[in-house]
Amino acid sequence: MRGAGELKKILSSLLAFIFAVSFLLVYNQAYRNELDHMEKAGEGISRQFGIPNYANFSSPDEMYPILHEAAIESTVNIFRTHINYGVDDEVQIHKYVLLTNSTRLFDSFRLETGKFLTSDDTQHRNFFLSTLDTGNQDQVGIIKGFGNNYLFEMKPLKVAYEHLPVAGQYFVEASEERYNEFVERVISKIIANELVGQGALLTPEDFKGQSYNSGEMEIEEDFFTYIKYLIIIIVIIMLIYYIFNESKRIGVMKMHGLSNLYLWYLVVGRLITVIFVLAATTSVLAALLIKDTTVQFVGNVIISELISYVIVTLISLIAYIYISKIKVVDAIKNRKETKGIFAMNTLLKIGCSIFLILVILSIWNQYNDLHIKQENLKSWERSKDYGVFYPVKVGNDLEDLQKGSPKTTVAEVTGLYPLLNRMGAVYIDARAYEQKSLVLNSEFDGIRSISVNLNYLHEFPVYDIQNNSVKILEDTSDFILLVPEKYRDNEKDILDYFKKIRKSRLEADENLFKIEVPDHVRNQQLTINWIANGQKIFSFNPDVFRLENNMIVDPIIQVITEKNSLVADKANMMTGGGGRDPLKVKLINRDSQQTLKALEPELKRLELDDNLTNLISVDQYVIEQIYDLQKQRNQLLFISLGLLAGLLVLVVQNLSVFFSKYQRRFIVRRLFGVGFFKTYKEYIWLLTTTWLIQIGICFLINNGLASRLLEKAGSVFSVASSIYQAIGSSDINVLAVGGGVIVIELVASVLALFVIERKNKVKILKGGV
Q1: What are the pLDDT digits (tens) for 551-605?
Q2: Do 615 and 389 form a contact (C-beta atoms < 8 A)?
Q3: Residue 388 pairs with which residues in a beta bridge?
Q4: Class of residue 467 by CB neighbours under 10 A (exposed 0-12, middle 13-18, buried 19+)
Q5: Residue 545, Cβ neighbours under 10 Å: how many?
Q6: With a threshold of 0.70, does the pTM exceed it?
Q7: In angstroms, rounded to a whole number, what is the distance separating the alpha carbons of residues 83 and 655?
Q8: Distance of alpha carbon 250 from its chain centroid, rounded?
């Protein structure tokens, strides 16, 4: 009975797997729901409100009082969400709120300790909530976070401007009447505070806000349910095959007068019940041990396990039908009809393989779309590590500015820049390639170029004609140009042009900035380093070649070091352009506020603390897109692994049935030294035939067969919708996916046959079955 014992182990494993998947489905859904509720908390009860990206609206010191007063007068609540990444790339969600009356915002949250924020807390204090116990005296409560796998914080809106620009997306909790009143009050206060010029026209439409679709995945958690159902189908076949192998024992028990129902319970029902009790107990214990678990989650786990138990039990009644048809005479004589089981198993495998190919093709298409989006944002992923000073204020320097004094600029370049450079700040001035600059200077007859510092070259390497990354030292006093080799014939023109540029900038240092130019800079050599053609240089500027992912192909690059540069070279490094500014400050632990505090002593020493008061993320919109892509990528990976596991289970189960049918023939061939593939030629023939059929059907479906059926099914099942959208893919892609599945099946089959053969050889030689 060793073979039956092995089948029982496999069946037990599959049943346990079904109950495990049921638990994971509930856990995944609970986690996603809570994360989604926290991320979008307040949006469902609010109306969108956006502050345009106008320079006059960039100062939080001017705009926040306007928002505050308008909110109080209109009795509305304001929310804003900020997503960033910690040092270990863990997602951090921050919700900023301004409350003036009661709110439904807190309906999405559970408190472990403490209290929720009040209107007074958000208006006049710095109290906040977090999913972690930070130890900060301003923390007034700990929010329960299911599983404790992420950081969520809720803080007053005024704190948002330590990390975000004023411009951006907000949500206003209010009735339509109150909302319209709030917008009108904001506009009137902006005009009253003279933040726009006379005659400027502002309309409510300017502040309605713009939403964007980050591209939600079309394949959702339904796929995990489908994987569960796939395993259930496999269990059906395994149950029948298990009963088939137990038919002799069942025949003997029938001779003793046991009823078919009791036989079903002894052979199948008891096994399912025992596995269910163990799995349910384990699942409930696991649910209770999860940090900040909920009664609802535990209840959903129990219900899910019960549903799975009922489904498996009802399906197992198919085995009851098979048991009732077993004749005592046939069972005792060991006569077994295998054709029906084998045919049904083969048809199931063909159907599941076609399904898997179509699903993987759909996932491949989504991977391609995801890859394109990732490539668009690949370089921008570095933005998580950098911030920009925004806005840059006049501060106490209005009189100097009116007199044309460049004192602030000199302090920034000669005092602050060396410190920021040592901290890893990236400098790239690509404004000559901004869309506006290209249009306004369309008649420009000079040579366009960009300027970068050595930190930029470290983060975004540029390669010479030997394909080695360019290496330059910080104490280099020569002025270096990195020029694509294709411009070698224009070497003299390039050198002459940039010599004139260097001369004019040297004069600017002396006459405008009143700086004494060191001799090693005054007498520096202008050197060209030839670099490889066709290199795409990331501009780190959202206004440069937007359709080309902010890349510049083959620009001439001026390399700035601390020893070879003038004040004029970096005079425009911080002009209040936000993400367009050439200088990107390296953040400490990706925390703009922590970085700003570390810089405060130096800012005060240089008298820049009144000008550079806010350090914000480079581009919050880009970070949100990266966050969405990361969620999609992780889910696609999870789905792919689940499908692969389902395929492997199906292959092993199919081989168990196939080997049992021809086991004597296989063992005899192996004993006479027949090679592996010749021994199992029946399986190779079956594999080849079924795969020709499967690939053919897949080609037909990809070229429109059953498209109407899939389109209608897509309105009910997301999987059908995803497959429908994948129809029309390249036939090469279909062949590649099919070939990949074939290779996986072939490798798994060979390994499984070796294991099955080794375990069954002695038993068969002794006359067992």
Answers
A1: 999 999 999 999 999 999 999 898 877 778 899 999 998 888 889 999 999 999 9
A2: yes
A3: 616
A4: exposed
A5: 18
A6: no
A7: 49
A8: 53
